Structures are given as C-alpha cells and as structure tokens.
Amino acid sequence: xxxxxxxxxxxxxxxxxxxxxxxxxxxxxxxxxxxxxxxxxxxxxxxxxxxxxxxxxxxxxxxxxxxxxxxxxxxxxxxxxxxxxxxxxxxxxxxxxxxxxxxxxxxxxxxxxxxxxxxxxxxxxxxxxxxxxxxxxxxxxxxxxxxxxxxxxxxxxxxxxxxxxxxxxxx
Length: 171
Ligand SMILES: [Fe+2]
Ligand SMILES: [Fe+2]
Fold this sequence. Notes:
This protein is an all-alpha fold. It has nine helices and no strands. The chain has a single domain, classed as Hypothetical protein af1432 (Orthogonal Bundle), CATH 1.10.3210. It binds fe (ii) ion (2 copies). One fe (ii) ion is lined by residues 58-59, 71, 104-105.
C-alpha cells in the first residue's frame, strides 16, 4: 500500500494500459508525479489522497503518446468506475479527483489548491520530453520555486524511478 494507492490498483491500471508501460507516460512518470504531488502538498495543503490517485489515473487511459485530447476525461471516468472497488473517497474529494483528471491538459489553472497541486505535479515532470517547466504554466508558488523545478527536472531527465510502490513495480 502506498498511501491510498494499493498494489491491486497499480496492477489494474497496468492491465488496462493501452500504451508503453515503460514509456514517457508509463509507470516511472506516474511514480514521479506521485512524489512531486506529495512534495508539493506539504507546502500547498493539498489533499494527499486526491494527489496520489491523480498520479495513477490522469494518464491511465491514453491511447497514444502524442496528441490525445480526451485522455484526461477518460482517466476521470476510469477513476469513477473503480471508486469503491480499489479505493474510497468522500464525494467532495472525488469531485476534486474527477476534475483534476478531466482538466489536466485543458485548463491552465483552477481555483482549488488540490487541483492546482495535481496539475503542477504532472507539469513538473516535463524534463523527460526535453522541456523545462515554465513557471508561467505552473499554478502554485511551491512549484514555481526554481529549486523545486530543478529538483523535479533532474529526476525527470535522468528517468529516475522513485523507490515508492509505483517505482518498485517497474523493477
Ligand atoms: Fe496527461
Ligand atoms: Fe502526465
């Protein structure tokens, strides 16, 4: 168990994954987004359960590695269908998870700090595709901090696999 994310949930995400599980949107990305989110949540006060579940669901339903504008809404629907089976959240928390997954590529920011933290946790992992996160496209002050950008970008560029449950599942 990694916080609210169970091994069974990670396996279920993997078993329905349509693209490369070891690719740029695969497990190592999810594992870094998970850690970016937890790191940011310490400063932003985001709901950590939502941030952790966002990490595993937000790219879970991608159909390709390039342009797939509906992958966020599809990830949100997967989260909805597995609520109560692989994890539980209150209605209020679930609304945050659903919105964060749905809008993560479509919205620049959001009024809610948990959703902002989810967006930033993902955007801080752009180094893997050769982009340095631009503070203009980050939502929280914690993510805009240049030390945070550098920390996350180094990990992303080097393909760092965190030693959390998600990372361990890759080895
Ligand atoms: Fe995405
Ligand atoms: Fe992502």
